[in-house]
Amino acid sequence: KAGVTQTPRYLIKTRGQQVTLSCSPISGHRSVSWYQQTPGQGLQFLFEYFSETQRNKGNFPGRFSGRQFSNSRSEMNVSTLELGDSALYLCASSLGLGRVGTEAFFGQGTRLTVV
Amino acid sequence: GQQLNQSPQSMFIQEGEDVSMNCTSSSIFNTWLWYKQDPGEGPVLLIALYKAGELTSNGRLTAQFGITRKDSFLNISASIPSDVGIYFCAGQWGLGQFYFGTGTSLTVIP
Description:
The complex is a heterodimer.
Chain A: E1 5-7, E2 10-13, E3 19-24, E4 31-38, E5 42-50, E6 53-57, E7 64-68, E8 74-78, E9 87-94, E10 105-106, E11 110-114
Parallel strand pairs in A: 2-11
Antiparallel strand pairs in A: 1-3, 3-8, 4-5, 4-9, 5-6, 7-8, 9-10, 9-11
Chain B: E1 5-7, E2 10-14, E3 19-24, E4 31-37, E5 44-49, E6 55-58, E7 61-65, E8 71-76, E9 85-92, E10 99-100, E11 104-109
Parallel strand pairs in B: 2-11
Antiparallel strand pairs in B: 1-3, 3-8, 4-5, 4-9, 6-7, 7-8, 9-10, 9-11
């Protein structure tokens, strides 16, 4: 069974540009969550999508957005990049059904560097 | 957003020693998860806990869901060099978001 796949693994962008990251969840998983990880702030929750609907949202500005497709694949977009957006972006997939199947499995992440 | 208090922040131990770390929250959770993360990689799930008081093992790892529902503990017995990494706890209530601990960095000295 394939794991969570994130693309690309590494990305370098310039301030002011926008970026789109992709996440393919484990087959059969309907929930995809996105996290930003930085050395100073740890793992910060961005948002969660379940069956194409945003179910939970963290405290990030509107520049951070996401969506989920009917095949459960998800994309995250960051517009007007700032230097502080440099981070490891992680996506996690789960069945999303509650106590059974709550376990979230992470991808390897996308390392975004903004210069 | 809420962040869980995880301690200790870092540990340096001799190979073969046992390790204990814990995670506390001001809120009640009904799911606790423990992860290990290697540099440059995503966190890998170690143990999932769903019931207050539950004790679950995965090889040399044992985790417990605190009776108050506000804490969880992870123990590693007879540590080996490949145990090196950062360990994170995560808590969830219902179908809400997962809240993550600040991490415990483990170094095992051969």
